[in-house]
């Protein structure tokens, strides 16, 4: 089968994905009465014109139907809770076949690089990648160094190893943390080769930090970002989305994007 055109989830070879898969990993702590409703976040994805919406299957099954024409679906097909303190491992929760039936253009899988259970996840991802190829959809690896053998999960050499792992295992995209080491991260991106690097947004921070991270990521050669809490936890989610998009797609400086953000917030008052 012909593989899904990667340009369908890119804009001029760049991308900004919105993630709402945190509920399984973190529980309800990241949410408020407003943001706990998936429709609130899905509305942001459509109105913000994101390149893709990342969901676990339950949310996609129960809420995505009314939004599928507005934003492409990226289905996360493995996961775990944050309760058990064991060796990092996220088991598969959905088949590629089911993801395709639900209309996903890509599937996501977390592989904890360096975990004592790494071999299990490599085997699982290899099968997923093969099936995704057969169905013609894309794969995104969440490449997170984690476990008792990892001393520093954002060390440049460790991240470079994770990026190379994603390439060697056939991922189309790799979602990784950024470590604010711009020269070092250029090496991380080179290690990923033709696998597109996406920066993970992580916990909500200041607008300045987010825009600086986006700018440095693009200077390092990344394709874009996959962010969640920095958008849907924000009091002005569409305005901060527009500011991040200015950095990613228009090469705006963090200062210019921040100025635009503040102006748009003030205008809306």
Plain-language structure description:
The protein has 269 residues and is of the alpha/beta class. It has a single domain, classed as TIM Barrel. The strands form 2 sheets. The protein has an 8-stranded parallel beta barrel, surrounded by 5 helices. β6, α5 and β7 form a beta-alpha-beta unit. It is globular. The mean pLDDT is 96.
Radius of gyration: 17 Å
Q: Strand order of the main beta sheet, please?
A: 1-2-3-6-7-8-9-10
The string of secondary-structure elements, in order, is EHHEHEEEHEHEHEHEHEHHH
Helix content: 40-55%
Sheet with most strands: 8 strands, parallel, barrel
- Distance from N terminus to C terminus (CA atoms, Å) equals 51 Å
Brief description of this entry?
By secondary structure, the chain is of the alpha/beta class. The chain has a single domain (6-268), classed as TIM Barrel (Alpha-Beta Barrel).
Structural topology:
Elements lengths: L14 E5 L2 H5 L11 H10 L4 E5 H7 L9 E4 L1 E2 L11 E2 L3 H6 L2 E8 L6 H18 L2 E6 L12 H13 L4 E4 L5 H11 L3 E5 L6 H14 L3 E4 L1 H4 L4 H14 L3 H15 L1
Parallel strand pairs: 1-2, 1-10, 2-3, 3-6, 6-7, 7-8, 8-9, 9-10
Antiparallel strand pairs: 4-5
Helix pairs in contact: 6-7, 7-8, 8-10, 8-11, 10-11
Provide tags for this entry.
eight-stranded parallel beta barrel; TIM Barrel; two-stranded antiparallel ribbon; alpha/beta; 43% helix; 269 residues; 17% strand; globular
